[in-house]
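I am going through a labmate's work and have reached the protein record below. What it holds is a sequence and that sequence's fold in token form. Please read both lines and tell me whether the tokens look consistent with the sequence. Do not assume that whoever made the record got everything right. Thanks in advance; the entry in question is below.
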Amino acid sequence: LEPCDTLLLKGVDDMVWVVEVLEYHGYIAVENKENVKNGLFRLDEEEAVPLEEIERIAVKEGTHTITISGENIEERTDSVFIEAGEEFIYDLSKAQEKVGVLIIDANVDAYKLYINGTLVDSTTPAVLPLGEYDVVILKNGYTEWNQHIVLDKDTVTVRADLEKDVQY
């Protein structure tokens, strides 16, 4: 029995003869939560608790609302149905990472753009998970341009002024 169960006590005076379980509980287990930074878990309208404290919780049978938030993911809210005696696995492996758009405003065109050492399409803005990146721009006839960029909001625009490579 768990505190969320509903019991009916039958007896005479102060003596209980029969205990009947009217509503039994099920469980919610949360998996793959280690990738959520500073995650919070909220069940229905209860107070949010740190995600790392949630392993397996007993809840009444029926429909419940789970809300998960964290620094690096989009807040998600799901409605789940819990059956008595059953365990519902709430999997966060597909939690949508918060992303931002990195726009490079360069004074040249047709350049090679490397983000964290990987060549990417320089003709479109880069959609990346929020975080830190090393950006390098290469173009024949110009000196290498590089910068460490923190992508910490929806859109970050960086001005890249490449200088002509002077050779003697």
The chain is about 0% helix and 60% strand. Residues 148 and 158 are 11 Å apart (CA to CA).
